[in-house]
Amino acid sequence: MKRVTGIGGIFIKAKDPDTLRDWYRRHLGLEIGEWGGVAFRWNDAGNPGGSGTTVWSVFADSSTYFAPSTAPFMVNYRVDDLHALLGALRSEGCAVEDKVDESEYGKFGWVVDPEGNKIELWQPPAGQ
Questions:
Q1: Cβ 117 vs Cβ 68: under 8 Å
Q2: What positions does the domain VOC occupy (predicted)?
Q3: CATH code, residues 4-123
């Protein structure tokens, strides 16, 4: 089973999200959307007819989305089969969250690495 196929997103916590977004806008030229981030579009050999997305976004320092991790970042990895991977990780003794979100944006699951960093796993919708 193929596990991770790429980076789906990078999420950063900030004490002052608007100031940090403005810094990235002014100095690195990121075109940040009203939702607080950027969606980088691409395609590759594994998805020649579709469009992949890697998201960059800033969260408020007070956000609990990264919990139980206390790290100021979270990486989202693209996967081919979320449920199969979560099952494999559980059988390997990894700290996998029970919750799985499924929507028009794809399937999302989470695992915590040995350093306590929460990792988001994302199975994009077909064609992405």
A1: no
A2: 6-124
A3: 3.10.180.10
